[in-house]
Amino acid sequence: MRTFIDERGQTWDLRLDVSALERCAAVGIHLDEVLSGKSDLLIRLRFDAPLIARTLAAICRPAFPLHQVKTDEEFIALLTPAVLGRAKALLRDELVGFFTQFDPGAGRPLQLWLEKDKDLARMLAPLAVSAAAPLLSSGAGSGGAPGSAA
What we know:
Blueprint: E1 2-5, E2 11-14, H1 18-26, H2 41-47, H3 49-60, H4 72-77, H5 81-102, H6 104-137
Helix pairs in contact: 1-3, 3-5, 5-6
């Protein structure tokens, strides 16, 4: 089980089990598709923010009353981009852990994918910083719209 902290500072448990899989399936997110190798679900769980948020909501739904959250939408509103990014990484780790334990033969490719995904993120981070540096040093984004007197 992994945990993340939402915008209000509340700690949420992220635990993938069969009941969580069923809650996800009930909203059209079939996490077991990651085992087929034919689905793009792993890629979508890396880049599709609404899908990630809906998946997290389904998994965390049993804890809603504890945190005075009534709906998925209210929960999703607690997921700032930074919170969503951290929770997304935990979700991928939880998926790999669950399916590796459930079916070690099928889970091993997921483990390899996760390692490659982390390597890719490490490789891209310096490029993102390099690309953003000119924007940050020129003051872009600190004033009004282009061509306006900020």
